[in-house]
Specification:
four-stranded antiparallel beta sheet; 7 helices; elongated; alpha+beta; 10 strands
């Protein structure tokens, strides 16, 4: 699933390439992809509107329009936004195609069909409940530390909860916990202030590095221009089950927490609060 760095990379690319272009036709190839209205109304409402800005909130892509409105996309498991020449045929996984005055086409390519698109006047209600952006000034270490002390859940699934901090997913939670030296099964309220500050810094560092590398490409993710990310070559634990830890040499372990595949180093990320360490996973997702 595209996480914050991937969606931010997509937003930056579209901001350069899409702003100012006009929608001249809209083709809904999978009606279930449209979450805000019936597909015919959705398509008619887009024609004649110009893209005025592109931004991101958590894992949502927000394409602002004139006359006012916002096209919101959540790519879910395998969605890709592609900006291609308008004459390129629509392949079997294209769910939405917007023909543009520039002669190009903006397309949602989604093999697993979980991606969703909304056309709304104001996305506030759709985005309510999301926590602060982890790279913003709003998200400070002291507030994060206090929030952890009020939570009794394991830290890994808590960080995946978009109400605590927005935009984190499986890859970057595993990488951040490793960098901070915190076991993914630790209870959030067991973390001391120094550990919370260390984790706060690790999350910011990992996300910033991943954005600088254009995101992580493991299977489906690519930029609207078709480029792959490069952060997969910098991953320290995610996807490295049984490989040696870069710090201590111990084999990276993969287990399952809250139904998610979870990677960690048992030496560099010790379980210190008495919680049983989950056994290695067999076929854990993610």
């Amino acid at each position: 699933m595209p996480e914050l760095p991937e969606v931010e990379t997509i937003a930056r690319c579209l901001r350069q390439q899409l702003v100012g272009d006009l929608v001249i036709a809209a083709h809904v190839l999978r009606p279930q992809t449209i979450a805000s209205s019936d597909p015919s109304t959705f398509a008619r409402s887009l024609v004649g509107r110009r893209f005025s800005a592109v931004r991101r909130r958590a894992k949502y892509l927000l394409l602002e329009l004139e006359p006012p409105g916002v096209l919101v996309a959540h790519l879910r498991m395998s969605g890709r936004m592609r900006l291609v020449p308008g004459h390129e045929p629509c392949g079997g996984h294209i769910r939405l195609a917007l023909d543009l005055a520039s002669g190009r086409s903006l397309r949602l390519d989604d093999q697993r069909t979980f991606g969703r698109v909304w056309l709304v006047d104001d996305p506030a209600s759709l985005l309510q409940g999301l926590g602060p952006e982890p790279l913003s000034d709003e998200w400070d270490a002291d507030g994060f530390s206090r929030a952890l002390k009020r939570r009794h859940r394991m830290i890994k699934p808590l960080l995946l909860d978009q109400s605590l901090v927005a935009g984190l997913g499986n890859i970057y939670v595993d990488e951040s916990l490793y960098r901070a030296g915190i076991h993914p099964a630790r209870r959030a309220d067991s973390l001391g202030p120094d550990e919370a500050v260390r984790l706060h810094a690790a999350i910011r560092e990992v996300l910033a590095e991943a954005i600088a590398h254009g995101g992580t490409t493991l299977r489906d993710y690519a930029t609207p221009e078709g480029a792959s990310g490069a952060y997969q070559f910098a991953l320290q634990v995610y996807g490295r089950e049984s490989e040696p830890c870069g710090r201590c040499g111990r084999a990276i372990v993969k287990t399952r927490l809250a139904q998610r595949g979870t990677h960690y180093c048992p030496v560099c990320q010790p379980a210190t609060d008495g919680f049983a360490v989950p056994p290695p996973a067999e076929g854990a997702d993610g």
